[in-house]
Each structure stands twice: as C-alpha cells, then as structure tokens.
Amino acid sequence: MSREVRVAIAGGSGYTGGELLRLLLFHPHVQVQQITSERFAGKPVTKVHPNLRKLTPLKFDKIGDLQPCDLLFLCLPHGETANRWDDFVRLAPKVIDLSADFRLNDAAAYRHAYKKHHPRPDLLQRFVYGIPELHRDEIRDADYVASAGCNATATILGLYPLYRAGVVDPERTVVEVKVGSSEAGNRANEGSHHPERSNCLRSFSPTGHRHVAEITQELSFGSKIQVHFSATAVDMVRGALATSHVFLNQGLEEKDVWKIYREHYAAEPFVRIVKERDGIYRYPEPKLLAGTNFCDVGFERDPASDRVVVISAIDNLMKGSAGQAVQALNLMCGFEERTALEFPGLHPV
Amino acid sequence: MSREVRVAIAGGSGYTGGELLRLLLFHPHVQVQQITSERFAGKPVTKVHPNLRKLTPLKFDKIGDLQPCDLLFLCLPHGETANRWDDFVRLAPKVIDLSADFRLNDAAAYRHAYKKHHPRPDLLQRFVYGIPELHRDEIRDADYVASAGCNATATILGLYPLYRAGVVDPERTVVEVKVGSSEAGNRANEGSHHPERSNCLRSFSPTGHRHVAEITQELSFGSKIQVHFSATAVDMVRGALATSHVFLNQGLEEKDVWKIYREHYAAEPFVRIVKERDGIYRYPEPKLLAGTNFCDVGFERDPASDRVVVISAIDNLMKGSAGQAVQALNLMCGFEERTALEFPGLHPV
Amino acid sequence: MSREVRVAIAGGSGYTGGELLRLLLFHPHVQVQQITSERFAGKPVTKVHPNLRKLTPLKFDKIGDLQPCDLLFLCLPHGETANRWDDFVRLAPKVIDLSADFRLNDAAAYRHAYKKHHPRPDLLQRFVYGIPELHRDEIRDADYVASAGCNATATILGLYPLYRAGVVDPERTVVEVKVGSSEAGNRANEGSHHPERSNCLRSFSPTGHRHVAEITQELSFGSKIQVHFSATAVDMVRGALATSHVFLNQGLEEKDVWKIYREHYAAEPFVRIVKERDGIYRYPEPKLLAGTNFCDVGFERDPASDRVVVISAIDNLMKGSAGQAVQALNLMCGFEERTALEFPGLHPV
Amino acid sequence: MSREVRVAIAGGSGYTGGELLRLLLFHPHVQVQQITSERFAGKPVTKVHPNLRKLTPLKFDKIGDLQPCDLLFLCLPHGETANRWDDFVRLAPKVIDLSADFRLNDAAAYRHAYKKHHPRPDLLQRFVYGIPELHRDEIRDADYVASAGCNATATILGLYPLYRAGVVDPERTVVEVKVGSSEAGNRANEGSHHPERSNCLRSFSPTGHRHVAEITQELSFGSKIQVHFSATAVDMVRGALATSHVFLNQGLEEKDVWKIYREHYAAEPFVRIVKERDGIYRYPEPKLLAGTNFCDVGFERDPASDRVVVISAIDNLMKGSAGQAVQALNLMCGFEERTALEFPGLHPV
C-alpha cells in the first residue's frame, strides 16, 4: 500500500520523538520524511534510538532544514512551539504538538499554571486538546492538536465518566499518580542518576503539579472543581498509574458505577475496563501496558463511605504521549483509529 | 557487659522473626535463648536467615519446647497469639506480640475489621499499642505490648501531630500507602512470583484495608474520624511510604504546621522531620531507611487549597515491625531506647 | 486476507504459550483454533495472559479435546512430548515442539544430559533443530521441529560463525549466561518469591547446565569440543545475555573477525551485529530486545591475548522460544520469514 | 571510651567518602575531625549523605583547610593522591588512599594499565596493598596503605587460595564480574540515567579492565599468569559478583578444593565460605552483603572437566572500598579488626 501521508518530527532525539518514530515506521500509510535534532544532526537516528537498528536508514536533520510535509509533529521543549509557531505553520497544514504550550485554552489558566504570560494567546482556541475519547470529532476536523500531558491523560480518562455524569463532589477529589523515570525525558541529572533513582519512592510534586490545569479544564463542564493532586516517582521506566479518590454526591451502588463506565468506554478501542474478582491483575497496571496505547481503567466502591477509588494506568510514552499523537493522526487523516497502534503489550515483562 | 535479659522468639523463620534475631544478636543486654520454627526445627537459623552466617550457632526449636524466659516475642500468624495465649503467658512475664491480635482495644472494632469475633476479648485492655512515640510511658510499664501494623505505623506517625493538635477536618483525610514486597511475608505465591511482582504498580487494597482500624483508634481522640485509605504495591522489597492528604479546619500557614511537628517530634530519637528546599531527598523516602528504625516525616502545604500533604516513610520490617518491637523491649527493660537500633541506613542502596 | 493455516497450542497457560498466542493472534495467515490448559480449561485465555484483554475471545480447552489442525505447537513440560507423541502426531501433519525432548539427535547425548534414557530414540532423527540461522533449509522441509533452548540459542548464535570458520581453540571456550526470571516459567517457588529473587545475582548452574549438550551438538562439526558453561540469574524478567570467551587458534585481527560475522549474518533478518565505538549501547543488550525476535551479536578482540569476547543477547521468550517457533512456522508454511515478528522493541523500557 | 584516633577524609562527598563517614561515626575509637568537598564546602554533610541526618553536625571543609590529624583517608579522583602527595604527607603520619594511584608496586605495570607514566614512582614501594587477608602483617606495620579496587578485591579473594596453592593453570583463568551502578561513582552521566541504566545487562569492559593489573600482581607469586577478565553492569546499586573459571593443573577432587579454602579462610573474620546443597542461597550473592564487610566465597568443581568455578561476592562500597579501608585502620591502629564493621547485612532487601 502506498504511504500517502508525509510527516516530519521536529525534536526527534528525545524519548517521545523516538517513540513516534518507532510507531510511524510501521504505519502503512505514513512516510517519515524528516526527523530533527540539533545535537545529533547528520547522525543516524539509531544512534539515540538503538531499538531501531537495521530498521531505518534515517538520519537527523537540523530543524532549519525541514521541508514542507503533510503533518508535522512537534516534540520540542515547552515554549518552543509557541515561540516558533510562525515558522512551523508554514511547513504543514496539520500540526500535532506534544509540548504543553497549547493544551490549555485559557490564557489565565496558563499564566496560573506556568507562572508566565502565554506568548501566543491568539492561538489558544485553534488547538484541540488531544484526548480522542473526549474530543474525537473535533480532532477529526482539527488542523492543530495539542497532545495531553501524560499524568493528565491517566487522570482524566479515569475520572471523565464520573464527572461527565455529574455524580461526584466537585471539590473533594484526591489524585495520587505514580510515575516511571521516562516521564522526565532523556537528559541525565543528579536525580536521575541510577544509584539515586533506583529503589526510589519519591514525592516530586506533592502539590502544584502543572497537569492539574489540564485536568480541571477537561473535567469541569462549566462548574468550579478542585482536584487535589500529588505525584510520586517509582522505580520503573515506563508507566503511570493514577489512584483517584472521588466522593459521590448521590447514593450509587457498584453496579451503577459500572454502568457509567460501560456507557462511556465500551466502544472505545483503547480503553479497557479492568475489574476482576480474583487473580493477580484485578486492577489496571502499567506493567501490562508497556508499548501499548491502552488506558486501563478500574474502580472500587468503598462500602464504608461514599468514596470510589478509580485506578487508571497508561504507558506514559504511548497513550500519554506518542501513541495518543498517532491516534490523533489517524483521526485527522481518516485512517482506521488503531492503525500502527495494535501492539498488545507483553506478559510478563 | 553481661546479657541480663533472656528472650525467646516464637515463630522465628519469617522475615519479622529474622529481623528481630538480627537486632537482638547485637543487643548488648539481651541473650536470645531460643527461637522457634515448626518447619525448620533442628536446623541452623542461618538456613533461612543467611545474612547471619558465621554470626550465630543458634538452631530452631519447636514451639512446644520453649523454656521460661524474661521476655517472649511472638511472630506467629494472626490468630495464634490469642488462641494459644494461656500457653505463652506461663513462659514469660513480658510479651511483645507482633501479630494483629491485640492491636485494637475494642472488640467491636476487631470484629468489624477482621470479620470475626475476637477469641479473647478479656485480654484486649491488657495490651499497650506499641508505637513508643504515642505510648512511651505506658509501654515502659507494660507487661504486654502489641506492635503496630507497618502501614498503620507510617500513617499514624505522619498524621498524629496534626490530629493531636485538632487542626484537621476529621472526615476528609485520604491516605495512599506504597509498599514493598516483604510486607506480605516469606511465603511464595502466584502474586509474589518474580516475573509477576517485578515492575508492578499494583493496587491491592483500594478500600477495606485492615490497618484502618488501628489508625482510627489512635487518631480519633474521642471523636468520630474517617480515614480514606488505599494501598499500592511497588517494585521494592523493603519500605513503606504513606502520602496523606489532610484538609485543615483552620487557616494555618506552613510555619504553623512546622511548629506542630517540631513540638511533637524534635526530641524523638527515631522520628526525623525531612523537608528541604532542594536536592534529591527533599521529602521522606524509604530508600534511605532500609535496616533503620527511623520514621522520616515531611509535609507540603498546598497554597491552592486547605490541603496539607504529609509524607512519612519507614522500613516496614524495622520501625514497622521488629525495630519497633526492640524499641519497646528497651523501654520495658529500662535500656537506653536506641540500643541495638543505631544503624543509620545506607546511601546509595 | 484469509487465515489459511489453522494452529493449536498444547500447554498454553505458561509464558511460552502466552507469547506464542500473542504473536499468532496478529499473524495474518494463521488462525489459532485451540489452546489448551488442564488447569484453566473453560476459562478465557486472558485470565492468565492479561495483556490480551479485549483482543481475543479464546478460552482454554483440555488437551484431550484437541481437534485436527494444520500445525501443532507443543509447550508441555519436558518429557510430555515424547511420552504422548503417538496422540499428537495424529492431530497435525506439522509439529513444533518447544520442550527439550527432541533437541538432541543422539540418544547417548540425551542420556548424558538428562540422566535418563530417551523414551523415543526412534524419533530423534525426525526432528530438525529449530534455529533457522543454522538450519533454514531443513526447517523449510521439516514436518517436526524442536525449538532450541533459550540459553543455547543465545550462545550458539554468538559462537557459530567462529566455530564454523574453524578459528577457535575447541576446548577452551568459557560461556557465562545471565538470565531473567521468566526463563524458569510461571510457577511460583521459594526462589522466585519477589523478596528473594529481587536484587539477586545468583549462580544457579555454575556447572552442568543441560543446554551445553545442544551447544556442543551444534558447534562441533564432527570434532570434539568442550564448552565451559555457567549461568547466573539477574534481577530482570525477560532477556538472556551470553558472554563467551573464545581463544583463537590463529592470528586473526579484529577486521578478520568482523568479516567472519558479516559473512554469516549480513543477510539474516533477525541477527544484528552490534559493535559501536561510543554511546551507551555499544554491545548487545537484552534491554533493547524485549518482545522482539532479534539476536544481537557483538564482540571485542582482546589485544592482550588471543581471546575474543563474544556478546550475544536475546529475549528468552522470543528468539529463545516463541519467536523462534513462529519463525520456524513461517519457514515451514512458506510465509515471509518476518511475518508477525516485526515488533522493533522499546527504548527506553 | 575516649575517641583516641583523629581522622580526616579528603574528598568526602562521593559514595566512598560517605560510606567511610557512616562507618567512622560509629567507630568507638575514632573521631572524624574533618571531611572535605570543594563543591559542598560549608554545607552539612547530610546534604549529600542524607542517611546521616540527625546523626552528625559535621560540615564539609575545603581541602586546603585540612588540619593535622592521626590518619588521613584520601578519596580523591585517580591521580590526585600522587600529584598532591607532598601536601598530604605533612598532614598525617598514616594515610589510607582509596584511589588507584598506589595499588601497583611496579611503574611499568602502572604505565601499561593506565596508559601514562606514574607521576611518583619513588613512592610505589612505600604503600602496602590494602587487602588484609593477603597482607595483614604488612598493613599492621604500614604508614601508607592503598585500598584495592572493588572488582580486584572480589576476584583476588576468590582466587587467592587456589593460586597460592599452585594448583591452577596460570594462563587459562577467565573472570566475569557483574557490578552495580554505585561502582561508577556519584556523578550523573548519559549512561547512568535511570531510563537507560535500569534493566541493563551491559558489557562495559569486555577486555582491558584496569583492575587486571592488580589481580595479576597479587596472584602471580613470581610466575607469569594471565587472567582473562570481563565486566558487565547489572541493574543493582551495590554489589559485585565475580564468577571465575579456573582450570586445575592436577587432579583435585572437591574435598581437596574445600580443604584449600578452609585452610586459608577459616580464621578470617570477613571471609565466609558459602557452599550449600540446597536452598536459595547456595552460592555467594551480593544481595546479602549490602552494608557489610564480608566477602563470601564459594565454588563448584565441574565433574565434566578440570574446571573449578569460583564465585565471590562483596559490597563494592564496603569490602571493595570503605569497609576494607576501615579494616586497615583497625589493623594500623591496633584495634580489634572487626570494630565498626559488624553490621551483618539485611535479609531480605
């Protein structure tokens, strides 16, 4: 089959860029025309993405050498997409941005979360927030998509059905996300040094995590909500698990909660409701999801209170980043939504 | 110096028994007279506690062969202490029980948590709950001490000062504990099989954890409280980290919270307040605590709400079990409280 | 495309069976007709292979209910294939056996390695040893294939070119294989208990490993050779790394060794020669290979002696087992050799 | 008891310096007078050694501010001890150097291993190589001791009895060492970045490891020997395991080998011969040794050849570095050899 869509990846030496490349090389309708890295320009991509050895002859280009293409992925440091937008927009009619620049559609919310004025507030309304389960039709019609943050993705997909149904006390939710080390990118630092990062169980954002702004945006439906969010780093490379404690504002039983989740997710190709009575894998777990685009969602109704504990798991580099972006590409280009995203995950691993 | 206190350990082939033995062999005032294991009776203790090779010639005895001693440690499966109490009480004037049998002082609370009637409700009031930071004087005078559950210990030590000070909304606290695999003991099962347990991030008690009963008992101070508790297993052997989200019922600033913690813990030999502005180890972390009897406690005041996130870390086999028990022995026998518990922990590890 | 080959998997609840199923569900020309498990008969395969949730409605059958098919995979405990051969042979014209029963073509070698008489020496010559890089044409024509042992596969693929070329002292080679925990299968035992198996670096076969018989068979080319083999378990789930120390019997330089490897492997779809001057991944490493069918091979010529250190890495469940078996299926059925085996591996993971 | 020996640690912010400090703070006869770090001068040592919180008020000094003391530990980058020797020698009558500068007593061997001329060949004979099991009496009388390399320590202690007994083919030994990440020190780099270093099984010195020079020096006893050495990094923080394949030059049975090891090591306080018929921990393993000064040594006689596989394990920061240095201090100062080194290790961990 001919590869009808030509794409380029700007900022392709990081983990997200590598993951995009891995997926797109096997996408039957896509041709990766260029991938950029200032640091590794001229070198084979396998220098930094060694898993792709023998699979591609691609070399890194400089970002200034990008040629026009059909769809441009931007995997640049936060701030770069906005700052260089006028250059990028000339290169491609469709853009998927994987940075945080255009996830929020409100300049005040951006200022609050990122402690600075948004450099291009004029563009905020032109990007669609990239979680297909919430914005499928808008993504289909979008020119510009902003892929969601990984922790935000896990949290939102876990909580969305309950918030959408309006059954939750909007100010009491507490979310604890546990994350692997790949979330912080591929640059070594003191805290990522193996002897320090190994065996860790490290609170890194007890309060003030930036993804809260995205979560609030997507779950508020016009009302004021408050999500109490914390994040802890664990000794794992890939994966994010959100444990969300929500408090019901009405007397729902377990089967009612089930029904709400089924209604929202039964037809979703990449969301699985995981809730079993026995066995090892009764609740969602990132271990099963490495390399996949699934978000597994489960829950437990606390019989001793009005609490529901929602558990949602993703691979942060996939459903939390590159996989979500390819899913958006599939929608934007009219391909079957699962194309290039069918890897089922390994067990055990 | 003569070893004036003769102790015995019943149920000494498990991880808790091994840890007790490790500590007591180096205690200058204690002689380990006997240690029992039905399964390994007659075999050297180093068969199951290989870290003690070349350090002790002790062999396991059968529990029926226990001789009188000064202090008896019971590390038996839950239920055994209560069921066989009349045998044990004849052997020693002082007993430290590391099971869950006598942690609760209320038979109704026991029935609610353990789903059965307590076999010996007559004894409930005779045991002191074994966390020295809460019950030091009572432990000094006690004949019988019930060591606290590991998750309960981490949670209680984190929350006690705020609850004691009465500054917390008593029904909103959410606690998320992350634990290593040694918590589940030394018997292999399907879920502890390395290929399944490795790389896990596994919810095992989203609701209904039994330790909630202990936490509630120790933090309620006569009022009704509700602690919303969940537990997640991580890929670590030793260690427990409690992330507790409490909501203030009055307008405290960070320095006020500091003051509360300092007042309670500044003089404690085994509680450290950990809260730094920079560096890798800004908050408490079990990684630094393996083998130690410390509970590290830190917190962060959320400027965006009335939340305080309290972070508390222990080694579940030490401060959460054997170390706590030896600390109790030191108090009960009039030894310096830190005796045999001075190991500072390793970095890195 | 129609799925023209109907297969069945006998003994499908183990890790190898699960991995076969994962691959075959995405094989465009194969239909998995049945998969058996005595223990889980009647239950969905996702009960034990949770990564396949939402991807297949298959349930386990009992082995006695197997229907005729085109190709039968046998993933039974060692000994079962031979003992029940007369039953199996009636079910399918082609069989791929993943046990150790028919890897050796000499009854005396079997007796020496497995300490018992082979129950069906009459069949030994009817099986082809399943490493395609050594026996591609024979496998194409074979009815019965015996997949190689995982450690044997890593070792043989690393050493084959040098032994084939006759440049090695045949009695001095020392091989040290490091392996993950999935090699030992999915049954929990005392040694696989996470607190014991985690952080391990455990010699489990310093001498006497059974795979030596396969290695010797495949590398001897009619001469007597001796391979000094040891194996060490490491804290990893998937993966095997063989570090082989061979001693040259003639004065080859590095470029000569290169040439030998290139001649043998340049055209191989699943062998990559990995040998870089800088970067993190200069030599083969299983970390990059999880889920892939690659064997990466590298080497270093010791300038201080006549030693060459050969390093070869595989995923033990893939190239070391299920992937190798699917590669054989592709050859036996005339499909493109890479079909269903194209997953490139993840980085990082 | 008074702390009669005043010591200082130059270069104390690294892992080795931290480990020395941890040990010496609990040494009953030693007072740590100063510890230096250019980078952290003026800051509390707990800034970089957080395990020591609440245990010491020490701050880092600059190296230029060192005052005279009784014994000086040097934990500086390789080359610094030799280059600045004239400054250091004025500060203390006894020096223990933990760098590689004075391990070799032959300038030509140094040049060969380190690819440069030794800057102070005049001093080479004044240092005693710091492994007490080989040089106890010399260390007792020494002013200057050079602590051995960690991989060299594990290898030498494993092989010494056999080489000393002269029962080994001197040119055939192959050694494969597996090491944790703390060996490479506390500076972050691309290869130590957690997503890259985690799950690794990485050959880093297939040939040409510098420690071979030390091994050769200590095992040759006047004859020419050749040790074929490789090293592989594993996903572990502390620990080194040497698997050494030696070939006997005479017909020894297992009990003869036993006898040789027992003769050398039965009286050693820090060497344990580990060789059991069953159980999980049949051979030496670093997992049991974290924080201890033990070297565990075991072996297996290959019945199929003249090979003996020797397995030796240490904690690289302890017996392989700081622990060995404190053992030397104890000898040099006339203290009981085990003082401050009695920690037995944790199980499980």
UniProtKB/TrEMBL annotation, chains A, B, C, D:
Which Pfam families does this chain map to? Semialdhyde_dh, Semialdhyde_dhC_1
Enumerate the CDD domains for this protein: AGPR_1_C_LysY, AGPR_1_N_LysY
Cytoplasm in keyword set:
yes
Highest taxon of the lineage? Bacteria
Regions of compositional bias (Basic and acidic residues) in chain numbering: 190-199
Q: Which UniProt keywords apply?
A: Amino-acid biosynthesis, Cytoplasm, Lysine biosynthesis, NADP, Oxidoreductase
Domain Semialdehyde dehydrogenase NAD-binding, which positions?
A: 6-142
Q: In which pathway does it act?
A: Amino-acid biosynthesis
InterPro entries, A to Z: AGPR, AGPR_AS, AGPR_dimerisation_dom, AGPR_type-1, LysY, NAD(P)-bd_dom_sf, Semialdehyde_DH_NAD-bd
An example of a GO molecular function for this protein is: NAD binding
Claim: Transferase is one of the keywords in the record: no
**Active site positions:** C150
Instruction: Give me the ranges of the annotated region Disordered.
Output: 181-203
An example GO biological process term is: lysine biosynthetic process
Q: Which E.C. number(s) belong to this protein?
A: 1.2.1.38
UniProt-listed HAMAP family = ArgC_type1, LysY
Q: Which PANTHER family match?
A: [LYSW]-L-2-AMINOADIPATE_[LYSW]-L-GLUTAMATE PHOSPHATE REDUCTASE-RELATED, N-ACETYL-GAMMA-GLUTAMYL-PHOSPHATE REDUCTASE, CHLOROPLASTIC-RELATED-RELATED
Query: What name goes with this protein?
Result: N-acetyl-gamma-glutamyl-phosphate reductase
Q: Which organism is it from?
A: Sulfidibacter corallicola
